[in-house]
Amino acid sequence: MRIAVVLAVALSPLLAFGQPKELPDVLKPDQDLVILADAGGFEVAKILPRGTFAGPFNAYKDEENPLGIREGGSFYSFSTRQHSYNKTPEVLLENGYIGVGGFAGLNYGFMTDLGDVPLEAVDFESPAASFLHAYRPPTLHDEIRAEQKRAHRFSQDGVNFQSRLSAKLGHTYLVRAISMDASDKLVVFKVLRIDETGAISIGWRSLKDFDKPTYLYESDDSLRARVAQVVREKGLSVQFSVSSGHVNFRDVPRHRASELSNAVYPFRPKGISFTEQGKGIP
Questions:
Q1: Coil vs helix vs strand at 120
Q2: Which residue in 10, 23, 45, 88 has the most C-beta neighbors within 10 A?
Q3: Quick count: other Cβ atoms within 10 Å of Cβ 171?
Q4: What domains can you pick out in the chain, each with its CATH number?
């Protein structure tokens, strides 16, 4: 038997993300928690221990998992409200621990255990929430990598932050989950139930959605200087601009466009484009 996704999550967004509009029964939070969430104005989700439904090694598609969801419901995304690892995973349940961010690429995150406090009591006045609200992720690749390492365990204003914490019944956690080119979210959640299988049910609410984070392999000034050197070496008299990692060339002879693009590509810009008299070169 299948049931509709709880908490009245709209079906059309779910379909747009590709995950089935209904969840398996095993991922359905208990009805009393759904009622509690409705009354308290927060959302509820159930997360299974990693390995409960294991798919084939190196399986990438949802349908390759016995549950029909990649990683078998052990991940959850506050941004997409889905469990699939393919849909911006932000928290993971594994061996009794909750992990945040850092599951792929340049993504990372950190959290802190606030203890047994009500969800509604958490605001930006506390040192933990104040820091997470004010935090701004770096944009340069190497700086992000350094921040990924720091996120495993650090202290700020007397508060300890980690990327992995024990899932404790009744405890409330503050999370900042940063997914490059996807989402950056500040969330508070509480472990409402831990069942005999080790699965947890959490009540959560979003505190802040930040601008979508992005990254550059080098600053615009550095990239601009390197592109300028290429243009000089090629003996070309062309104009170009660099903005947020994107390089745009203007009035480049068509037969030289590919050559120029190949020369700039190793610098790993976010994009390369060509315009001629206000129109793009196909």
A1: helix
A2: 45
A3: 17
A4: 2-209 (no CATH), 220-280 (3.30.70.1770)
